[in-house]
Amino acid sequence: MQLHSPLRKERSVAQPSSSYRWLILAVATWAQATSTLVTYGVGPLAAIWQKQWGLTAAQAGLLVSAVQVGPLFSMLLIGHALDRYGERWLVSLGACMLGMTFFLVSFTTHYLLLLLLLGIVGIWYGTAQPGGSKVILRWFPKKERGLAIGVRQAGIPIGGAIGGTLLPYLSLHFGWPSAVYAQSVLAVAGGLLFLALYREPQVFHEHQHQTNSRLRKKLKEITSNRKAVPILCTGVIMVTLQMVLVGHLMLFFGNEKKTGLVLAGQLLSTTLISGMVGRIVLAHISDRWWKGNRESALQLSIWASVFGITALIFLPAAPPIWSLFVLSAWLGFFGIGWFSSFLLAVAEQAPPHSEGLMVSYALTLNQVAIILAPAVFGWIADLQSYSFAWSLLILLLIGNGLLLAKKRKEEIG
To answer: What is the topology of this protein in the membrane according to its UniProt annotation (predicted)?
Structure first.
């Protein structure tokens, strides 16, 4: 069942034939990549800080978590602000403040101060995802949004890949503060480039006065939308799977299947690269094959993930190497590649003039799972076994798939 409202027309582009929107996509992707370079780059730096400062593994891990906790305190306010004031200044300011705050990290050697600064960095990172999603909704017609948001989402693994390659090299040859300088400069440059090139489409200025509802009123409208619940649940459960893959797949292969750390690392890289491809392809085929029905792409991702995890559980003790690469690619493509389709599904279900807040609300829920999932999964695996933990995840996925199917059936019927 399609919703018919002024919002559907609004979400079309002011200049649908203009090549300017593809320039905007490139700029938004780069701004996302440079911001992610900072947040994802905390992982490699934490390993260096641990060695130089004699931190425990828990202390090093907490540094990474601090960046992830930050968006919990900012995304709802930022989403509301995006709906009222537009993307140009907020995304630019967020990227610049993120870079400048992170620059202060280079001057501290005190653990608690470092923890505080990283938490503030995470707060500024809260502008990146909802702001970038809003850009796609503003400038791209529905038939092109899947491809566009998939490309923009590729900025996240691109930023992570740059960080994984560049930061250890700079730290080893010039000291870790030089890595922080590079991250800060690139983040600020990404924000300034976005500020220089991005312009709000005319449709935003025409309807800006309609977005002045109070935050509490808009949140009540969003949270009372029962039709959005299955989509929001999908985000929480699928991001749980995603973070488990990122945090535990290498450990599972290395410890349970005795692959060795080098091969386990290659398998994890395969998963991440395949996930980047999946974020583009799955969202794009929702444009082409399913005519903008994002839920079909999410259903495919859920059931394909169930199949992949089941295969993971029943792997023999010494499986062929090629099968591990195939399975890792499969899990990455569907278990990480779902995210672009999810963002569009959330944004396109938003009430009029509330896309930014709707995306921020969904991402805030996801952020809780991002923080908790790796630790809870590891705790269950320690208490029982990896097979037991994977099986619980399968049950969650099946339940979510059935919930999404029920929603679809009710809409058709």
So the answer is: Multi-pass membrane protein
3-state secondary structure the chain: CCCCCHHHHHCCCCCCCCCHHHHHHHHHHHHHHHHHHHHHCHHHHHHHHHHHHCCCHHHHHHHHHHHHHHHHHCHHHHHHHHHHHCCHHHHHHHHHHHHHHHHHHHHCCCHHHHHHHHHHHHHHHCCHHHHHHHHHHHHCCHHHHHHHHHHHHCHHHHHHHHHHHHHHHHHHHHCHHHHHHHHHHHHHHHHHHHHHHCCCCHHHHHHHHHHCCCHHHHHHHHHCCHHHHHHHHHHHHHHHHHHHHHHHHHHHHHHHCCCCHHHHHHHHHHHHHHHHHHHHHHHHHHHHCCCCCHHHHHHHHHHHHHHHHHHHHCCCCCCCHHHHHHHHHHHHHHHCCCHHHHHHHHHHCCCCCCHHHHHHHHHHHHHHHHHHHHHHHHHHHHHCCHHHHHHHHHHHHHHHHHHHHHHHHHHHC
Q: What is the value of pTM for the model shown?
A: 0.77
Architecture of domain 19-212: Up-down Bundle (1.20)
**Which has more pLDDT, 231 or 142?**
231
Q: Which amino acid is at 145?
A: R
Classify domain 222-413 by CATH number. 1.20.1250.20
State the pLDDT confidence band at 18, using cuts at 50, 70 and 90: low
Give per-residue pLDDT as tens, 29-52: 999 999 988 988 887 888 788 888
CATH 1.20.1250.20 occupies which residues in the chain?
A: 19-212, 222-413
